[in-house]
Amino acid sequence: MKQRRHTGPCTAKRILTGQIAAIGVLVLAMFLRELPGLAREIRIWRMIGFRTGSRHPR
């Protein structure tokens, strides 16, 4: 029985899918690690009354 060798677009697509999945997991891990810091920053912005856009002079 002769074994077929996996080459061609099917293998390339599988490798690309694996790479995209690995990058996605890394990005998600980085986001989850930074989430407490982002929440703290948002809390600070709310305390000081940070608003987007132009500020009116006092």
Task: Characterise this structure.
By secondary structure, the chain is an all-alpha fold. Helix content is 69%, strand content 0%. It has one helix at 9-48. It is rod-shaped and about 85 Å long. The chain starts with 8 loop residues before the first helix and ends in a 10-residue tail after the last helix. The mean pLDDT is 84.
Helix and strand layout, with pairings?
Layout (H helix, E strand, L loop, with lengths): L8 H40 L10
Keywords: Membrane, Transmembrane, Transmembrane helix
Summarize the structure.
This protein is mainly α. The chain contains 1 helix and no strands.
Shape: rod-shaped
Helix % is 55-70%
Round the Cα radius of gyration to an integer and report it.
24 Å
Query: Would you list the SSEs in sequence order as H and E?
Result: H
What is the average of the pLDDT values? 84
Number of strands: 0
Transmembrane segments: 12-32
Keywords: Membrane, Transmembrane, Transmembrane helix
Please name the defining characteristics of this protein.
about 60 residues; mainly alpha; rod-shaped
